[in-house]
Amino acid sequence: MRINTFFAFSLLVVALPLQAAQDTVRFATFNASLNRGSAGALASELSAPGSAQPDTVAEIIQRVRPEVLLINEFDYDAGGVSAQGFLDNYLSVAHGDAGPIFYPYYFVAPSNTGIFSGFDLDNSGGAGDFVPNDSFGFGFFPGQFGMVVYSMFPIDYEALRTFQLFRWKDMPDALLPDDPAFPGPADWYSPDELEVFRLSSKSHWDVPIVIPGDDEPKTIHFLVSHPTPPVFDGPEDRNGTRNADEIRFWADYIIPSRSGYIYDDEGQIGGLPSGALFVIAGDQNSDPFDGDSIPGSAQQLLDHPLVNTKVTPGSDGAIEQSILQGDANTLHFGDPAFDTADFSDFSPGNLRVDYVLPRKSLRITDAGVFWPTSDDPLFPLVGTFPFPSSDHRLVWVDVAVPGIE
Q1: Strand residue runs (E) in 35-176
Q2: Which of 23, 166, 292, 335 has a CA that sits 20 to 30 A from residue 112's CA?
């Protein structure tokens, strides 16, 4: 584990007995928009209870009550102050009739966002003339738009792997972007830039979750990331190609015959061993049918031979909002019931971009998207623009874990 990686468990809860074996586990992902405009601002805000947007985010989590949760767009700080503050002052505090929820374990680590590369990555004419675009991932300060994983079950911190430093050029057949002004292939980034350019716009983490069993515990690898949105670029489509390859990373990682090129931040080579249990989660920023991502990007996971897609999380609220908002939504090909994000009505419209995808051997018993209809008393938790919580919705999946029934 790198020295600047932080992990923790709550001292308040560590003395409690290990959670009893159960037949299903609820995994969830939530791009909660807990990002702020300056370094330390989120930690300061979460150091005391009562801030409106974190309160609303916490209540959504309390109502869904996932046992294992990824939060995207959660600013990183090296001491885990924000992660602990959200636990102590928001998740552990009741909101109306939504009771407190406790996570004894969590994990945070650095994000590539806001880390200046030293190069002119957007080819604007000057390195650092707009630091967010010339950083390894878009951000105004290091760690903006980061991630945190919370778990009711032990995290095997010794076996945890991060892939923040993996270079894009080291992926075989990487979709490195072409500069349309020149005839050469894959020439948007210079050779010197490709020597340092990282694949992950935030990071990719393999977080092993240890679930107690009647005979022995089971480990499920929680594979989490947040690929860059496939927009905010030009005809070279540098963000679209990167988004596709960030998604591909997990598709390769879970098959031993395809993962031999992968190395983690400690230099360990390869991906998951054959038969390992996993759940892939995160805001992939890619809809399988609509939006601006490269066609087939999301299908790298959705059509994967090892991924269980027999049940697709959905909601009635997404259907209702697609109809009410109209505009771009009327031109979509995908089923609006499966949308997970409420984007601009004009473009791209509401999309399915947030996923929780278990291995095929993990049977899905239930799934959903927290998106109430407008006549539901809980609708104010999601609302419409300007959103009280986030423009994304929490997505959850219940899986039956073999051997813990």
Answers
A1: 68-74, 105-108, 147-151, 161-162
A2: 292
